[in-house]
């Protein structure tokens, strides 16, 4: 079977969409080496040139001619002709979009939709960006022969906002990157702790600083809890960071709150595994991969109720309401895990068991089966 992917973000994106793209491509190439895989990307990044098996039947396709200078247009307007030329059986848009006229390419088109946060929380987005996203996502859903949603929450949103028949949508979960599956060598942990000047005991939160991620409420709750653990915030800083630093200065917490700069991806497992608690109080997500990263790392998780968070955390996490009253609830949960060793051990054990449900052996088989079904339809 000849399968093509929109691989731009697999080669260029360090965060969620890039991680998902690399996970899908690598997992399929490993589990189904008899297939042939074409990765369409306008450019490559040396950081991500080796994310799939070296002996896999994988070929990178980059634009030629006018497409080299107008790579964004190539992905949208020129890729359908390339797909037709390459005679793909399946084309999978891994990041919410498909090329224009992909139905005329001769390939069966599948798109993965990660979330519709820009429609649920429009005030968080620039109006022009929101309009572009709405057009691209809706068009992809209509063109696709099948849609993959990364959570039941996302499936519900696709049905609600785009009026797509539920039968056209399959929920297939993703795993976190395999680097989180294995214990990190103690010597590497020591090196990472020294490099980032990490405290001996800390609560960890990972994510871009933004109101939706709720770091300010986490900061207040952690302070209210009175724990002797420091707070470590890993993620890209934004204008919202000034609110966090203002609160820290107001409460004189500068010595106990740590903002990590850009962290190399392969160092993240060590940072997770040295944490005593992971807090992810986001208001809304498409799925919440950091929850899985923490569960695989043997760290108890506190996250929000509602949205997709119970899909990611199962019965292994503590859940608090992300709206009014969250500060008190978060503080209570932090104190509870700070003092109840038995609960911590139970959550770590249940968390690892739950994380196994997302391993590629299960999710990749579901995806490959979907490909076969689409070809028969």
Count of helical regions: 16
Q: Report the β-strand fraction as a percent range.
A: 5-15%
Q: Name the shape in a single word.
A: globular
Secondary-structure element pattern, one letter each? EHHEEHHEEHHEHEHEHEHEHEHEHEHHH
So, CATH architecture of the largest domain?
3-Layer(aba) Sandwich
DSSP summary, beta strand count: 13
Structural class comes to alpha/beta
- CA radius of gyration: 21 Å
Spatial gap, N to C terminus:
15 Å
The tally of structural domains comes to 2
**Which CATH class of the largest domain is shown?**
Alpha Beta
Uncertain segments are none
CATH topology of the largest domain: Rossmann fold
Mean pLDDT: 92
Helix content: 40-55%
Largest sheet: 7 strands, parallel
How do the strands of the widest beta sheet line up side by side? 3-2-1-4-5-6-7
Give the CATH H-level superfamily of the largest domain.
Answer: Glycogen Phosphorylase B
What would your notes on this structure say?
The strands form two sheets. A seven-stranded parallel sheet has the order 3-2-1-4-5-6-7, sandwiched between helices. A six-stranded parallel sheet has the order 10-9-8-11-12-13, sandwiched between helices. The protein contains 16 helices and 13 strands. The mean pLDDT is 92. The protein is globular, with a radius of gyration of 21 Å. The chain has 377 residues and is α/β, with parallel strands linked by helices. The protein has two domains: 192 residues, Glycogen Phosphorylase B (Rossmann fold, 3-Layer(aba) Sandwich), CATH 3.40.50; 181 residues, Glycogen Phosphorylase B (Rossmann fold), CATH 3.40.50.2000. Strand 12, helix 13 and strand 13 form a beta-alpha-beta unit. The longest helix is centred in the middle third of the chain and has 17 residues. It is 45% helix and 15% strand.
């Amino acid at each position: 079977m000849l399968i093509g992917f929109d691989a731009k973000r697999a080669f260029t994106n360090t965060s969620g969409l890039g991680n998902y793209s690399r996970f899908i491509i690598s997992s399929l190439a490993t589990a189904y080496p008899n297939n042939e895989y074409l990765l369409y990307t306008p450019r490559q990044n040396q950081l991500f040139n080796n994310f799939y098996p070296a002996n896999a039947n994988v070929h990178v396709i980059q634009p030629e001619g006018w497409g080299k200078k107008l790579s964004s247009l190539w992905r949208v307007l020129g890729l359908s002709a390339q797909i037709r030329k390459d005679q793909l059986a399946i084309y999978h848009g891994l990041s919410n979009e498909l090329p224009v006229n992909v139905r005329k390419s001769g390939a069966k088109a599948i798109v993965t939709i990660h979330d519709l946060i820009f429609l649920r929380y429009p005030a968080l987005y620039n109006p022009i960006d929101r309009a572009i996203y709405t057009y691209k996502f809706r068009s992809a859903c209509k063109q696709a022969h099948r849609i993959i949603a990364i959570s039941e929450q996302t499936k519900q949103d696709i049905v609600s906002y785009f009026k797509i028949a539920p039968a056209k949508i399959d929920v297939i979960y993703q795993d976190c990157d395999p680097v989180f599956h294995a214990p990190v060598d103690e010597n590497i942990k020591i090196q990472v702790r020294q490099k980032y000047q990490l405290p001996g005991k800390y609560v960890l939160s990972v994510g871009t600083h933004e109101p939706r991620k709720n770091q300010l409420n986490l900061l207040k709750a952690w302070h209210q809890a009175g724990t002797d653990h420091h707070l470590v915030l890993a993620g890209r800083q934004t204008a919202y960071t000034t609110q966090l630093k203002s609160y820290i200065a107001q409460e004189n917490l500068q010595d106990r709150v740590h903002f990590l700069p850009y962290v190399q991806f392969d160092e993240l497992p060590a940072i997770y595994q040295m944490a005593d608690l992971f807090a992810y109080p986001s208001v809304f997500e498409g799925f919440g991969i950091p929850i899985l990263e923490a569960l695989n790392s043997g760290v108890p998780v506190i996250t929000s109720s509602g949205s997709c968070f119970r899909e990611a955390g199962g019965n292994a996490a503590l859940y608090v309401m992300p709206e009014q009253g969250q500060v008190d609830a978060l503080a209570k949960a932090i104190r509870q895990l700070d003092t109840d060793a038995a609960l911590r051990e139970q959550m770590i054990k249940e968390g690892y068991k739950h994380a196994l449900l997302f391993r590629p052996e299960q999710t990749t088989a579901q995806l490959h089966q979907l490909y076969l079904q689409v070809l028969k339809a």
